[in-house]
Structures are given as C-alpha cells and as structure tokens.
C-alpha cells in the first residue's frame, strides 16, 4: 500500500521535494496517462495542506474537459480563454489567483474556493490540458507553488504516454 508522506511542519519547498520524490516512485513502472494523472491528483490533494480541490482538465475538441480529480463534483467543460483554467490554457502560463471573487470570469464550481492556481500541460507546441488546485483560503498559493508544481508537471509529462488521449 502506498502512503503519501510529508514531513510535518516542513517548509513548502521541502514538501514539494518530498512530493516530487514520491511521484517519481509512483511513475517508475507506469506510463499510462490516465493512471498517472489520477494518482498525481490524489498525491497532491493529500500532500498539500489546505486544498479543497485538485485535478486535471484535458483538451478535447477545442475545450477543456474534466479529468481525474479529488474533491467535490466539478464543472465538466470549460472554454479556453474563460475562467482561471481557460486563461492559463490560452496563455500557456501558470496563473495564480489570490482571490477568485476579484477575478473576472472566474467559474465557481465550489463556492468555498477562494484562491486558485492553474498550471498548463504543454507538449511541444500543443496544450494537453491543465492542472487546477483550489483552496478555501485567500492567497494560499505563491511562487513556491509555481516552482514545485511546474517541476511535478514536468516529471508527469516526461514519464507518461499521452498518445491515447484523443484531443
Ligand atoms: N474555477 C475554475 C473552474 C474549475 S473548478 O475550480 C474545479 C476556473 O475558473 O476555471
């Protein structure tokens, strides 16, 4: 049985290093994109304190469609260029929103969410999808989250075979 382990009281950057190492272990013998993104969502949800949602949206037919996640039932289809996920997808850049009530066009799947970070999943010049993390706390995410999550997404993209994800 796999148990998510992070050091109690450790700094955010130490915690991200621990999560990176655990994801490395989880992906060592597995390249299936669906299994790997599902386990990645679970690892992040359990390993990062203060989240109420963690999961993926994937590009399908020109829009973002809900993928593996942990948390409450969520919106299924998001338009590129709209909301936080759609903005990160359009810019192909990580977006942090410290207070979602002040972000024009924010799509509220869970009214408890107050801050959000969305990290794109690029592959060459294409976009596969995005990783979305939500927190009920204002300004929960900062540059340490950007660095830690982009490193984790880099590992996920490198180790997983996304060819069977029909875009
Ligand atoms: N709030 C997101 C929608 C996805 S949910 O938070 C899971 C957005 O504005 O794109």
Describe it.
With 167 residues, this protein is α+β, with helices and mostly antiparallel strands. The chain has one domain (12-166): GAF domain (Beta-Lactamase). Helix content is 34%, strand content 25%. Strands 3-2-1-6-5-4 form a six-stranded antiparallel β-sheet, sandwiched between helices. Helix 1 (12-27) runs antiparallel to helix 2 and helix 1 runs parallel beside helix 4. The protein is globular. The relative contact order is 0.19. Methionine sulfoxide (SME) binds next to helix 3 and strand 6.
Estimated radius of gyration: 15 Å
End-to-end Cα distance: 33 Å
What is the average per-residue confidence, as pLDDT, rounded to a whole number? 95
CATH architecture: 2-Layer Sandwich
Question: How are the secondary structure elements laid out?
Answer:
Layout: H1 12-27, H2 33-47, E1 53-60, E2 63-71, E3 77-78, H3 83-91, E4 95-97, E5 115-123, E6 126-135, H4 143-159
Helix pairs in contact: 1-2, 1-4
């Amino acid at each position: 049985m796999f148990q998510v382990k992070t050091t109690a009281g450790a700094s955010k950057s130490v915690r991200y290093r621990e999560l990176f190492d655990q994801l490395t272990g989880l992906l060592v013998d597995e390249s299936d994109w669906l299994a790997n993104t599902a386990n990645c969502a679970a690892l992040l949800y359990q390993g990062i304190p203060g989240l109420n949602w963690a999961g993926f949206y994937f590009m399908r037919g020109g829009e973002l469609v809900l993928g593996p996640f942990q948390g409450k039932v969520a919106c299924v289809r998001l338009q590129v260029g709209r909301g936080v996920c759609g903005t990160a997808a359009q810019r192909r850049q990580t977006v942090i929103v410290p207070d979602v009530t002040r972000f024009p066009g924010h799509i509220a799947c869970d009214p408890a969410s107050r801050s959000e970070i969305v990290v794109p999943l690029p592959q060459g010049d294409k976009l596969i999808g995005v990783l979305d993390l939500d927190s009920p706390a204002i300004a929960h995410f900062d540059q340490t989250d950007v660095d830690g999550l982009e490193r984790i997404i880099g590992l996920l993209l490198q180790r997983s075979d996304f060819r069977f994800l029909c875009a």
